[in-house]
Amino acid sequence: MTSKAFSSTASAPSPEARPVSDTRHGIERTDDYAWMRADNWQEVLRDPALLADDIRAHLEAENAYQAELLADTEALQKTLVAEMRGRIKEDETSVPAKDGPYAYAAGFRTGGEYPRFFRLPSDGGDNAEEDVLLDGDREAEGKSYFRIGGADHSPDHKRLLWGQDDKGSELYTLSVRDLESGKELPDTVTETGGSGEWDAAGSGFFYTRLDENHRPSKIFYHRIGADSAEDRLIYEEADPGFFVDVSGSRNHDWIYISAHDHETSECRILPASDPDATPRLVAARETGLQYDLEEGGDIFFILTNADDAKDFKIVTAPAGDPARANWQDLVPHEPGRLILAIMAFANYLVRLERKDGLPRLVIRDRADGSEHLIAFDEEAYSLGLMGSYEYDTETLRFSYSSMTTPQQVFDYDMRTRKRTLLKTQEVPSGHNPDDYVTRRLMAPAPDGELVPVSLVYRKDIALDGSAPCLLYGYGAYGMAMPAAFNTNCLSLVDRGFVYAIAHIRGGKEKGYAWYEDGKREKKVNTFTDFIAAARHLVAEGYTSHDRIVAEGGSAGGMLMGAIANMAPEAFGGIVAAVPFVDVLNTMLDDTLPLTPPEWPEWGNPIASRADYDTIAAYSPYDNVGAQDYPPILALAGLTDPRVTYWEPAKWVARLRERKSGDNPVLLKTNLDAGHAGASGRFSRLEEKALTYAFVLKVTGKMDNH
Fold first, then answer.
1. 91 phi/psi in degrees, rounded to 5
2. Quick check: is 666 in a domain?
């Protein structure tokens, strides 16, 4: 089906074919576009100017072609940016969180792109003066890209540890600021994961360092005032398939060092008061065993899938010896009830869990074991634990929203069960939830499973198949897509769109088994679930196939590439953001940052012929065919260490080479950013406006303002 939306006579870039052959398991494959992968990609992450001239010229040609074919949307893009910006409260500020003598918060100034971090006296009242600790707009001056990692105050409130990335490559520099003078100390550490964890006295911090292949593999301790070259190595992970990170307990009693891939975890602990201590192993890694620790005074609460607890259970262990032999069940495993997170307080244990596809909060009294739920009424909604600096408190803070209800922040008294609304997300340009409908459908998959689909649309649209639809999906790593409030999508919904989220296998929306049924040899379920969701929306009269635009990013971009190959006729357009589409080549390249840790998710095609065959059968780049594809927009970031820029660049080139029909394939590469795209909160809107302009163009809704 040829789209009538594009009439430009511009010629698409036609990159040179430079065949490179590779043989694995006796199977030879030829890649004409392997040359787009820069040999010096590690150096390019650190300095984008080092990109080879021929590769840069090709990416720039693609950007020019994309700009020409979407030139008629420039005014629309500006309108969309203005609309989306109008829904943002420009001086938005978080609700301050109390920590002893201060309450800490973050927020924006009017017109500002980046957050500022500040504190107030805890007992200062409404007129207390803000003490600005870090001003993101000031730090970003003169930089084409800027992102703040962590920003954490020391336990004694005297210093701030914060991270910054000025290239989009996720190689963060950590700095320490003296909060009395406001000056930076000479305690700078480079090429870190972006945040750190203070010791109990605030005299030093633990941090993760990335290796030459961009993998977080080492934990160091830096003592304030010392030369960072002499930082003590606390832990080094020898297995390239495991990443490490460091965190701490809210009471500043313990430091946690975690090594993990996508299905296995291993934790070590050491006293935060003794940074020179040797980390102590809690439970040795065992393939498939996952566990996380939460301090509870003289015990640890441990969230784990041990003993075949697929949807997780909670156990306890003495803080003095939390070895697995001492684990005792507290909240037993219940199939179909997935425990997502726990938070311990002096007198209560809180868990966030998902049952029947919806999240819920459960409060447990530690003294008598009694439990109660916090209830919500809407058909589909999103919940989040907001964290707490304080342990000895009866107040729980959480967030709530739905696809029609702006985010609300509540304090909840766990003893009296009183819920206090602290803040409701403001939409300055106006928003009336009563104008919209949110629904939860269940789409039948080919194997009989029912796929949840969350919808939002205006009450006044005709549900006769004429409405356009943006259908979003992800479906990987067990990540559930929340049915949360999204001000940006209102620019489509207010133009008559149905906005839908397909909660496909590969996520955990229906429990851990929902994740397992969408990974490795069962990965195809992710793709067929998404196609089933599209077909169900059509069957129920919400839209028609030529008016559905599919959208996904990263692993969701792989989904976009797969459904484009499998069912191109089911979609009127496709948006693939930083798409992981060259799956087989990437999983065969163990020098790339994410490849070894990703093998548990996708399979290891180097070691296994069966895994090779599984991935080869769906890898989008390897399965592009001589068929009519819908219009496609792909987005990439030059310094992206997660999905490298050459994946979408190669995919677009092969699509153009092999497809039939006249529908365009567009590629926009941000030459100043990485995986997350533009860093500023308003500059990000420009990228979303480009995406939405493409969506409106391919569905014939450009003039509907």
1. -100, 35
2. yes
